[in-house]
């Protein structure tokens, strides 16, 4: 079976008090700080990054994502809207693998520890989902289904998904392998363009 993703044009989205803007090289210090957080490393950093020397992690992480739009992933820095386009990065949100499966994408996110607990993850996910599921005639990606997964041991991510309209569809056994090699059962959540 052949698979192909969609090359995407970088853009900025506006949410409830936040901006989702394309990542930039100037985000490296904020990413370095975020990747010192054990929760981000465990649930969202990726094994290659977690195994890299701390001083190298942000460069590896950012280098793998700066060109991601051209290969079918929308990768955003989450910032405070009141700080404008140059606001410091408070979190990350991506719609990955756009159209690898027709009309679908996979969502992922993290928020720096200092910016948690004020609705950033759920608002950013809602904003990006609305855009991705909107018709192309209205500036969206025109997708039908967005999915995400999180380890059962990460209940905060479950609540973020539910708040942003991603219904729980089931449990995937041993789906996620954390950087220490430990396997975790994971929830599969999804949001559709038209609720069923
Ligand atoms: C999980 C994470 C993204 C939450 O970010 P956040 O901006 O603090 O989340 P929000 O403020 O939008 O919270 C949304 C809801 O989740 C709840 N929540 C957030 N973190 C929680 C936690 N650790 N435990 C239980 N509930 C939590 C909030 O209370 C809120 O629910 P409420 O409105 O009913 O009170 C953040 O803690 C994080 O980045 N964790 C590490 C990386 C990660 O797990 N990424 C997801 C990988 S699947």
UniProtKB/TrEMBL annotation:
The keyword Transferase applies. GO terms for molecular function: protein N-terminal-serine acetyltransferase activity; protein-N-terminal-alanine acetyltransferase activity. Pfam families: Acetyltransf_3 (PF13302). It comes from the Bacteria. GO terms for cellular component: cytoplasm. Residues 18-195 form the N-acetyltransferase domain. InterPro entries: Acyl_CoA_acyltransferase, GNAT_dom, Ribosomal_N-acetyltransferase. Gene3D superfamilies: 3.40.630.30. Keywords: Transferase. This is N-acetyltransferase.
């Amino acid at each position: 079976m052949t698979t192909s993703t969609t090359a995407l044009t970088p853009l900025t989205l506006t949410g409830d008090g936040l901006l989702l803007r394309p990542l930039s090289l100037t985000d490296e210090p904020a990413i370095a700080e975020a990747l010192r957080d054990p929760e981000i490393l465990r649930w969202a950093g990726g094994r290659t990054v977690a195994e890299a020397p701390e001083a190298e992690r942000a460069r590896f992480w950012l280098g793998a994502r700066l060109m991601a739009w051209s290969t079918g992933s929308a990768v955003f820095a989450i910032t405070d809207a009141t700080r404008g386009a140059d606001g410091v990065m408070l979190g990350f949100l991506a719609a990955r693998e756009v159209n690898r499966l027709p009309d679908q994408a996979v969502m992922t996110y993290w928020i720096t520890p200092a910016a948690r607990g004020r609705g950033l993850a759920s608002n950013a996910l809602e904003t990006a989902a609305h855009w991705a599921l909107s018709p192309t005639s209205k500036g969206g990606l025109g997708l039908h289904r967005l999915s995400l997964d999180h380890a059962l041991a990460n209940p905060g991510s479950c609540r973020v998904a539910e708040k942003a309209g991603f219904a729980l569809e089931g449990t995937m056994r041993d789906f996620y392998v954390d950087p220490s090699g430990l396997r975790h059962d994971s929830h599969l959540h999804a949001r559709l363009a038209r609720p069923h």
